[in-house]
Amino acid sequence: MVILKKVRSATLVETMVASVIIVIVFLIASLSLNNIFRGTINSDDSALQNRINELTYFVNNEKIKAPFYEDTALWDIGIEIQGGEKVIEVLNKKNGKEVRIKLAE
Predict the structure, then answer these.
(1) Strand partners, 98
(2) β-sheet with 68-71: strand ranges across
(3) pLDDT tens, 34-77?
(4) Among candidates 86, 89, 88, which has minimal Cα distance to 105?
(5) Which residues contact 81 (CB under 8 A, 6 or more apart)?
(6) Within a 10 A sphere around the Cβ of 58, how many other Cβ atoms?
(7) CB atoms within 10 A of CB 78
(8) pTM tops 0.90, yes or no
């Protein structure tokens, strides 16, 4: 006959403390990941880059004429001729950041 050994078990308090520590670690990890993903999504400007590339193509192939202005929900885009060069100016409406891109002839 097999003799069963008594296994010393943890008390209820120790189990609760360990559970709370695990929950706190997962909470901190999930909040950190959420912050990283939110920052990634907010800084995504691929739609703007695609529009700038499209407008650059149109200007270089004379499909649109300068001056050209476009107003979107997030960006103001303008194409102007300054000093004989074509320049694209992009203004971010959220933070007021302005970018100027000179187009190659």
Answers:
(1) 91
(2) 68-71, 75-82, 85-92, 98-102
(3) 999 998 887 777 888 898 899 889 988 888 888 889 998 888 99
(4) 86
(5) 66, 67, 87
(6) 14
(7) 17
(8) no
